[in-house]
Amino acid sequence: MINFIVCDDNKSILNKVTNIIENAMMNNDTCYEIYSFNDYDSKFKEMINQKIPNKIYILDIETPTSSGIDIARKIRNIDYDSIIIFLTAHE
Fold first, then answer.
1. What is the 3-state secondary structure (H, E, C) of 11-64?
2. pTM, full prediction
3. pLDDT value at 85 more than 90
4. Residue 50 contacts by C-beta under 8 Å, 6 or more apart in sequence?
């Protein structure tokens, strides 16, 4: 099982990323789950602490309340194995 954890404050981008994941994973026999967040809030931070395997984080660089880079540091303090991908719409 692959667990995708996606965070972006732009709902349109969040939906696009989710759709891309779903389209890519439909062609595979691998089970997956997508967890979507629009901010690095307490629910997101609870997800970091959960002991679920095979996490792939897709993080927005900047949300109104926090930096994706700071969140990535917190993830690495707890979890060395998960993949972290940064996503941004900055020009």
1. HHHHHHHHHHHHHHHHCCCCCEEEEEECCCCHHHHHHHHCCCCCEEEEEECECC
2. 0.92
3. yes
4. none
